[in-house]
Amino acid sequence: MVSQCFVDVGTVRLAYRVSGPPDAPPVVLLPALGEVADDWDAVAAELAGGRRVYALDLRGHGDSDWPGEYSVELMRADVLGFLDALGLERADLVGHSLGGLVACLFAAAHPGRVARLVLEDIGVPRPRPAVTPERPDGELRFDWAMVRAVRAQIDTPPAGWAAAPRGITATTLVVAGGPQSHVPQDAVAELARLIPGARLVTIPVGHLVHHAAPKAFTGAVAAFLGVTRSAPTR
Predict the structure, then answer these.
(1) How many Å apart are CA 105 and CA 51, to the nearest integer?
(2) pTM score, two decimals?
């Protein structure tokens, strides 16, 4: 059973979906830019047989607060506040794209709080040509001001981001999307090399690995986390 919940983290209320046995080891799922907790539903269903699964809406997304103040560092601080508020001393983290960047920086800054880390198709932070994003038409599930703020940081990463992976002590799996992904795959491989002991697995289906190849992705992640999968992925 999946429950929709909320928790206050400082001045921000975060929404999250929770499933799995209450006494099972926790895993926290962080979605990509513009995505919300239900993006992880298929993955969560697989992991919930052996983990207490928490899937977050990052600030500025979905049912979490849209406070107007955004940065990757604030999202990282929100993850710490979330763990503290729920009394989770240590958890596994799984992050995709922006969520993977947040997870990477969190694991580097708070090594004692992360047991195992899964990073889905993100590369080591590098400067890239800035492109002004165009707002999609219609109602959005996220704050467009958040997109502008976060994209600016990703285009010109702050000092220290590139060195952060070296400080990760969690056992780490990096999942690459292969040549169909828009993320430079040499940067993904470099990230895996920089994280001590990290393992790199390529599932060549593009950036949206857990959507394009859910069975392969959840199989790799479940095995890495030591989870007995609850049911086949359709």
Answers:
(1) 23
(2) 0.96
Q: Is residue 231 part of a domain?
A: no
Structural contact between residues 181 and 126, judged by C-beta atoms closer than 8 angstroms: no
**Distance between CA 172 and CA 158 in Å, rounded?**
23
Tell me which H or E stretch contains 224.
Answer: helix 214-225
Residue 212 is part of a domain; what is its CATH number? Answer: 3.40.50.1820
Instruction: Tell me the mean pLDDT per 10 residues along the chain, length 234.
Output: 95 97 97 98 96 98 98 98 98 98 98 98 94 91 97 95 96 98 98 98 98 97 85 40
Two structure tokens written together for 187: 């940067």
Looking at the structure of the chain, the number of domains it has is 1
Tokens of 212: 């394009």
Please choose, from the candidates 48, 2, 41, the residue with its C-alpha nearest in 3D space to the C-alpha of residue 21: 48
